[in-house]
Amino acid sequence: MRKQQGLSGDGDGEWDKWVDDSSVDHRGRPPLRAATGSWRAAMFIILIEFSERLSYFGIATSLMIYLTKVLHQDMKVAAVNSQYWMSVTTLMPLLGGFLADAYLGRFRTVLLSTVVYLLGLVLLAVAQLAPGLRPGGVSVPRVHETLFFVGIYLVSVGTGGHKPALESFGADQFDDGHAGERLQKMSYFNWWNCALCSGVLLGVTVVVYIQERVGWGAATVLLAAVMGCSLVVYLAGWRTYRYRVPQGSPLTPLLRVAVAAVMKRRLQLPADAGQLYEEDDGKKRLLCHTYQLRCLDKAAIFEHGGEVWSGAWHLATVTQVEETKLVVSMVPIWVATLPFGMAAAQVSTFFIKQGMAMDRHLGPHFVLPPASVFALAAVAMIATVALVDKVLEPCLRRATGAERGISVLRRIGVGMAFAVLAMAVAAVVERRRLHSSATMSVFWLVPQFALMGVGDGFALVGLQEYFYDQMPETMRSLGIGLYLSVIGAGSFLSSQLIAAASRLSSHGGRRDGWFGKDLSRSRLDLFYWLLAGISAANLGFYVLVATQYSYKQQTAKAGRVGADKDAAAGDVECVIAAAA
Known about the structure:
Blueprint: E1 23-24, H1 38-70, H2 75-104, H3 106-129, H4 142-171, H5 179-213, H6 216-236, E2 243-244, H7 251-263, E3 303-304, E4 307-308, H8 318-336, H9 338-344, H10 350-356, E5 361-362, E6 366-367, H11 375-400, H12 408-434, H13 446-469, H14 476-505, H15 524-547, E7 553-555, H16 565-568, E8 574-576
Antiparallel strand pairs: 1-2, 3-4, 5-6, 7-8
Helix pairs in contact: 1-2, 1-4, 1-5, 1-6, 2-3, 2-4, 2-14, 3-4, 3-6, 4-14, 5-6, 5-11, 5-13, 7-8, 9-14, 9-15, 11-13, 12-13, 12-15, 13-14
């Protein structure tokens, strides 16, 4: 019986000295646990996330204002352009995650994408500061508009590699097979989001203040300088990181399973699942067999009627089959969370636009910048994440005796419920604003921002952990990209919903409809009620899908089953992944 490193988590003996999770150190050797990974490495990675979010939200929350005030676009055109940009920015991580997992590796992907990100910020600064390029009055030079859009879309490309690779690279610093580090990783996603929200908070207050009082160009130069400094910090931690060597396209094994299952579709499955083929190459932990999507199990039939099946496209291991099942099972969850992404898209667009139309005076001399209202959501998210990590999770662990107090899918569902409430409250506040004879205070927006912040604290953190933890080990950057695509696809669907609602409510453009040239001639309250209804109906669908979901189950001891099942059968113990 081969001893499995780190599964006991007791920290004693030679097996606990080295990390045995297929990662390597900066010299390509098995990492020494005491000198690599864990919080000592994760802190470098969390710091660069702080600076990236500072830059991103310094741009994103003011984009609607820039498009309407500087480029003089109508509100509907600006909202569509803003949400298209958000869609691209949050869908690009699918490509970035694939490249990181398959070819570049996560460390190198972060490095290259940060350089692209910096290039985008430099182009924005040039467009906003160079004489002859800056817009003046109602006149906007064509070259300024071109450089501006090229710059923000380079930021999108940079974010596409940065976000999935960086977050998964940080989570890679914790060994799932070591009990202590596994608990640390649960907290990692919480504190990752605290750093993220801290960057958001400064981005929508300090950066936005500089944009309003000093100038857009000065704020962009500051963002570029901070991003450059964070790159230096990231490189400073290279000796402490645990690296994953890319293994080629992670989609190829999934295709092989599908092809093998189709070729053997007429074969009968063995009564004993232990007769299915499995092999331990020592490079990754094995997955236990499950009884969902059993048609895929036929890919792992090793021998049938005296005929031996072999070859990469004719035979798959149980682990490869189970990895394919995991990816297929994620599709309904992904679809069911899209309305949450649609609701989240309103925070940085129409919520900000509402703030522009309200009284933002704080005392006789200070006026709150419209985009700074977004800080309310960031503060609420930070408070929620800290409360969940330090109070709710420990209490639920003691009450249930489970390693995780609340399951990941339940956490996501709670966040989605808060998003429904936020849309309903936003509709009520907007209707009151429309019928108010006096200008309402911007603090009427506190409830809807706070509810979305709490929702993000539950749902976004849960989505990050779900798509990282439940993905196959070779696809974890792609998993983070899939999480981000929930927001991206949600933003895209929101822009399509805006276009459809505008066309129907304006009767083909013959009247203002729900989206006029300004808020006083619009009916955002009806749009918010529409989103609340869609989100509420979808929440029922999500609950149905989530209750049917089967979490990843790993083997506590990897062995060879099928071809050598006599040598290893009975030595395999299945453990449900921590997400449950």
